[in-house]
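agent> Task received from the user: take the single chain below, predict its 3D structure, and emit structure tokens. No templates, no multimer pairing.
agent> Plan: (1) validate residues, (2) run structure prediction, (3) serialize to tokens, (4) report one or two observations.
agent> Step 1 OK, no nonstandard residues flagged.
tool_call: predict_structure(input=
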Amino acid sequence: MTSQSLKKEILITGFGGQGIVLAGQIVGKAASLGDHLESTLTQSYGPEARGGACSAHVIISDSFIHFPYVRHPDILVCMSQGGFDKFRHLLKETSTLITDQDLVHPGDVVCGDVFAVPATRMAEELGRKMMANIVMTGFFTAVTQAISFESAQRMVAASVPKGTETLNLSAFGKGHDFGVATLKGRRKKIEAVRGATA
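)
tool_result: status=success, residues=198
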């Protein structure tokens, strides 16, 4: 968490069965238990648990949080098209949008920044599609820096089912590495443009 961003409203959305709430728990716990910030988590489900709409509202702050629901997310993470369609109207001009690039097609959207990661595909390559939420959490950690890598990594290990820690940490690392590479690629493009116009 940087000194200039004292509060982050984070909305993670998808469908039941994707581990959306677990991703929210990891982010919230990493902020509070690891990074010593205030955090809240609220969750909502559609009519069916598996396959229905699902979202996790996480707020991170360095001061007391008065209202636990996200009204205008600083970061919107979408792992389903339905989730994106439902919450896109909440995006601000300064919001960061992160999507699973194979499942969400945002089209023309007005916000501060847009990132896409093939989280589900990467999880499938690791042998477990259900770890897409952990891949996404790693990517989120890298590109937003809303929570520290060390705290997020510890919370992944502490939150996943016993016996799956190593595989889930691998998924987290894969997502984080993809995020770091994405940021590096963007910096190179900016430097190239600056060099061309100098």
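agent> Step 4: summary for the user.
The longest strand covers residues 7-15.
agent> Done.
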